[in-house]
Every structure is written in C-alpha cells, then in structure tokens.
From TrEMBL, chain A:
Transmembrane segments: 20-37, 44-69, 89-113, 145-174, 218-241, 253-273, 303-328, 349-369, 413-433
Membrane topology, record value: Multi-pass membrane protein
Name by which UniProt lists this protein: Maltose/maltodextrin transport system permease protein
Organism phylogeny: Bacteria, Bacillati, Bacillota, Bacilli, Bacillales
PANTHER family, per the entry: MALTOSE/MALTODEXTRIN TRANSPORT SYSTEM PERMEASE PROTEIN MALF (PTHR47314), MALTOSE_MALTODEXTRIN TRANSPORT SYSTEM PERMEASE PROTEIN MALF (PTHR47314:SF1)
Function: Part of the ABC transporter complex MalEFGK involved in maltose/maltodextrin import. Probably responsible for the translocation of the substrate across the membrane.
Pfam families: BPD_transp_1
Record's keyword annotation contains Membrane: yes
InterPro entries: MetI-like, MetI-like_sf
Family statement drawn from the similarity comment of this UniProt entry: Belongs to the binding-protein-dependent transport system permease family. MalFG subfamily.
Automatic annotation (TrEMBL), chain B:
Name of the protein in question: Maltose/maltodextrin transport system permease protein MalG
InterPro entries registered for this protein in UniProt: BP-dep_ABC_trans_perm, MetI-like, MetI-like_sf
TM region(s), chain numbering: 20-45, 86-107, 119-141, 153-173, 194-216, 253-274
Entry-linked SUPFAM superfamilies: MetI-like (SSF161098)
Coiled coil location: none
Membrane-topology annotation of the record: Multi-pass membrane protein
Top-level taxonomic group: Bacteria
Name of one Pfam family that matches: BPD_transp_1
UniProt record similarity statement: Belongs to the binding-protein-dependent transport system permease family.
Keywords: Cell membrane, Membrane, Transmembrane, Transmembrane helix, Transport
Keyword Ligase listed: no
Amino acid sequence: MESPMTIHPASREQRSMKTIVSVALSVIFMGLGQLYNRQIVKGLMLALIEAYVLIFWSKPIMNGIWGLVTLGEQVQIRQRGRIVEQGDHSIFMMVEGIIYLLALLVIICFYIFNIGDAYKVRKRMEEGISVRSARQSVKYAWEKGYAYFLLTPAIVFTLFLTILPLLFGVLIAFTNYSGPNYLPPKHLVDWVGFKTFSNLFNLRAWSHTFYGVVGWTLLWAVLATVTTYFTGLFYALMINVKRIRFKRFWRTVYILPWAIPAFVTILIFRNFFNAQFGPLNEYLSLFGIAAIPWLSDPFWAKASLVFVNTWLGFPFWMALMSGVLTSIDKDMYEAAEVDGASPWQRFRTITFPLVLFATAPLLIMSFAGNLNNFNIIYLFTEGGPVNIDYSYAGSTDILISWIFKLTLQQNQFNTASVISILIFIIIAIFSIWNFRQTRAFKEEEMIQ
Amino acid sequence: MKTISGNHKVSIRQSWRENVLLTVIYMILAGTAIVVLYPVVWVILGSMNPGDTISSTTYLPERLTLSHYVSLFEEKDYLIWYKNTLFIAFMNMIISTVLVVTAAYAFSRFRFPGRKQGLMVMLVLQMFPSFMGMIAIYILLLQMNLLDNHWGLILVYAGGSIPFGAWLVKGYFDGLPRSLEEAAKIDGASHTSIFFRIMIPLSVPMLTFIAVSNFIGPWMDFIFARLVLRSNDNKTLAVGLFEMVTGRANNEFTTFAAGAVLVAIPITILFLFLQKYIIEGLKAGANKG
C-alpha cells in the first residue's frame, strides 16, 4: 500500500513538463500517467481495464460498428425454397451496432476521465497537497460517487429501453427499411439518406395522406383541448355558485368519467355509437330521426370522437378549476361589484384571467398530449372509416395512430420513423415554449 | 322614501332572477349527471342482461342474470388476464417507484459532473412519442428472449416511467427544506439513512402519486401490451377486453360489459380515494422546471 506523500515544490518549467508527461502517458495507455504519478494501485487497475477491453472487446466493437455502417453485405440465398446461406440481418446488425457504439462512448468517457485524473493528481502534487492513497481514493470515490451509485439503475434502464430504441428509431428514418422489398432476413436494408423525408413531402401517394392527416391532427388537438377546457370551466363555475347545494355530490358524480379507466369507457362508447345495434340510433328512431352512420361517416365519426373526448376529459379541468376558484380572494369581487361591474365583466376581468394563469402550463401540456392521444382514436374508431384517398390511413387517423398502422400492420418502418421525428419536432417546440413560460410565471410570482 | 322602495323593488327582481338562474343551473347539472351516468348504468345493466349481443340489451330487461360474470370465469380466461394485469401493475409500481425516487434523490441533492446534461436528456426524452422506439424494443426483447413474457413488458413500462417521474419527484425534493438533512449529517447520518429516514417520510404525497400512476398505467396501456404479449395466457385485461368487442361478430357484448365492470370498480375506487394526490401531482408535473 502506498502512503500519502508530499512532493517538494519544483521549479515552474519542471512542473509543466511533468504535467505534460503524465497527461501524455495517460493518453497513450490508460493508467500510465497514474503510475508516473506514483499511484501504483490505481494505475495498475486502469491499465488492466484497458488491456481487458483491448483483448476481449476490440473485435466485437469493430464488428458492431462495421455492421452499423454497412448494414450487412451478404444477401440471404435460397435454393428451391430452402435457405442455403442465412445472410446478414441488417436490423439486428443495426441494433447491435448501436449497443457497441454506446459501449464505446462509455469507454471513451472513462478514458477522458483517466486523462483528467492524471492531470489533476499531478496538479495537486505540484501544489504540495498530499496525494490520496488507494484506500482513500476508494473512500473518496464512494462519497463523491454516491450520486452515480444511485443513478446507475435508472441510467441502465433509460439507456437500453429509451435512448437505444429512440436512436434506432431515428436511424431507421434514413434507411429503406420497409415492406415488401426491404425486409430482413430475406433482404438487406440500406442507408438512403433523406430520401424517405423527401418522398413523404413529394410523392403524391404519401404527401396527400400526410397533409390530410396533419390537418386533422391539428384540428383534433385544438378541438379536444378547447372543448374539455371550457366544459370543465363551465361546470366548475356552476358548482361554485354560492347558493348551489350538494357541491360534493355534484363533484363526485362529475369526476367519475375521469376515474373510470378510459379504455373501458371508450370501448363502451364504441358500442353505444354502433350504427346498427347501438342504443343511440334506437333512441333517435323513437323521435323519428333516421339512423345516423356515427362511425362510418367521416364527419360523424369525428364529431363523436370530440364528444367522447369531452366526456372523458372535462372532469380533470373541473376538479382543477374548482380548486382555483375557491382560492380566489372574495374581496376582489366585492370591490368590482361596488364599482358596478356586471357578472360577465367580473368573470372576464377577474375569474378567467386567474384561472387561465393557474392552468396555462397544463393547458399547453394537454394540447401536446392530445396531439398524441392514441388510445381514444384507436380504441374508438381504429382510425376508420376507410379513406380510399389515403395510403394506410383512415379518415380519423391522427399522426400517431397512422404511425402505429404503418409499423405494426404495413411494415412501412422508415416512413413511420420519419413521421415520428416530425412529431417530436412539433412537441419539442411546444414543450420548450411551455418550459420557458413556466419559468416566466415563477419569476412573475416572485415579483408580486 | 322613494329610494328605499326602489331598492326594495330591485332586490325582489334580483332575487327572482337569481332563483330562475339557480333553477336553470340545477337543470343543467342534473341533465349532465344523466349524461355522465348513462353509459355507466347502461354497461352495468348490459352485463346483467340475458342474451349476448348489444341488440338484445334493453334498458328495462325482463330479468337480471349474473350468468355473464360466471362465464367470464368459467369460459373465458378472464381470471388469468386479471392476475396478469395485477402482477404487471404491482411489479411496475415497485420497480418504477424505486428507479424514479433514487434518480430524483441523486439529481436533487448531489452536484456531480454530468448532472445538468442528465437532466436535459430526461427533459428531451419526455418529448418523444413513447412508441417511436417500438420496433427496437421489439427486437431487443426478442433477442433477450423476453417477448411474450410479463417481465419484458414490466421492463418496458419501468424504463418509460423514469424521465417524467424523475423530473417530477426531483422538483418535489427540491422544495423540501435542507435544514433537517444538514442536522442529520452533523449527527453522522449516512446518505442512505438520510434518504430513508428524512426524504421518504417527507414526500409521501408525491410518492403516492408516482406509485398509483405506475400501478394504474398497465391497466390502461394497450399499445405495448399488444406488442409484447402474444399468447392468450399472457394477455392483459385491456387487450383481452378489446378483442372481445372488436371481432367481426361482436356477439359477446354482455360478457364484455361484465368484464368491464369488474375492471372499472377497483380502479375507480382507488382513484376516488386518491384524487387529491393525483390532482396535486399533475399540477406539480406541469410546473416543473
């Protein structure tokens, strides 16, 4: 075991020379700099790690990256229907390539840490501060590294289950991975650059569907957000009227749509709106109204979607706004009344601004959420009714449910991935804007 | 004199107008209550209607029967689906909460190289549509032999819950006063004991929100359950019920209704009990940053 040692201060040139040497040594081989700094145990450990990586990992890493770059070269060969040569599976190679690339990044980070460490230790030695022994280093690392220890599980999960799949998803956009001609293991997949992007905008078969679906997605997000928000506000206001009794009862009843699992209610409504057997058309026929094709006509399907969404979504806003309304200072209303403000004016100048102020961040998040509200679209209409003008999309499909169909039913992976990148850009703009707004809100609160 | 009687008249007219307004409000409230409760009652009655299809579901059935509930358990794999969902939900709740809380503690109370970048990465990750990585997850699970396996699904859920949850809980931890920890540190408490003795007890409301939302998540999720789980024995409730009413024939409506009632009851009760925490948690989620 080494012991902490003190180094006599040396002349300036000697110092900088020694620093350069220790850094240069660490660059050449991990741990050399530490050995030069007379941290024997640490240096040996680091050198061992590098040797281990070089011996056992360099080949797989090289192979992985080769696979990622070429996406395989050997096509599957069949003779008389039997597979003679298995061939390269481009997609597996891609995923493996990304994993090895991530591993390489971790190793590079570690390498940089090693160089930085050699530099820092040398600096400390020159300033005459005692250098930590191996045992002290371990203790120091435990103290300092506790945060990393805590984070390790989360990092591993996020890396493999979120970041890796997303990287993969992004990369797919730049390949021709799609049915029927580029599906492994039968065929190879190739990098095609931005071709899929330009196809989406320029090829009529894609662009027509794309613009149509984008239009409905935006309209849907606006309608879904506005209807739930104002319906919620409307009921919160009514329940909050001073002389209304059984407030708790009303609130509990109205919260039910939020409390019942949404997928259950959506499936129930799907049957309720069923044009042939559903009770809704039956009731209408009692009033002499002819059956309405709720789910098979584009307009009615969209209208019923908005209705069902309002039913599902207004309780959240109602509950939230009830809280805001009860916390508004009553004096403000009295003052306004003395000044002769009408109820509408009081609402417009006091209630609404305060409610909006308190709920704005959630309103924006809910808009972003509605853009991607897959569940209601897929469970209620499955994107239908069929639209013959669209490629692989129905009349009520929003971008996200279109992606779902493209991936799971049509094998159009590359186009699906391009669309998800576009969605990401839209959502990112909203989120960043929202993030900034909340900052602004907080600062404003502090000023008041 | 004149002014007093004038005022009197105004107040009478006002109270009359107010009464009309109140009546209108009560009528709207009652009407909406019917709209809200109608589907609920319809399904409960449907589940007890004799017959199989929606068309045979009348609002005033001649007699009520529990046979659909019985057949759920005897003919369908409902009990297996229920057990599957319960298992996945419970495991996801535990794993996600542990992952989220440890990460949030590290981000909130330690300053270390990479902290800022880590927080930014998590913020960005929240913005991606969750199933953009679907194909890759499918391949990964396939290679790890976790396809059509509950643990595969649990891993996917737990991994997905980290970015949002960690930000939320980190924000909450940031708001807790540090004086207690500093006092404990002076008394020689370790990071671990500070975490368990101080942070956890102080953040029960937020932990409840995280745990409950992770428990409820798998009951609602449809996409990943459908992607990962293939065989009938492994299905979750959402997938099983969806398939009951979307087949061509659509002749199992009443059995579906019975199944829906049995899912909705526990989740609804859980929700109503914890709604206070849920609303608080969502508010905090929107104000993070």
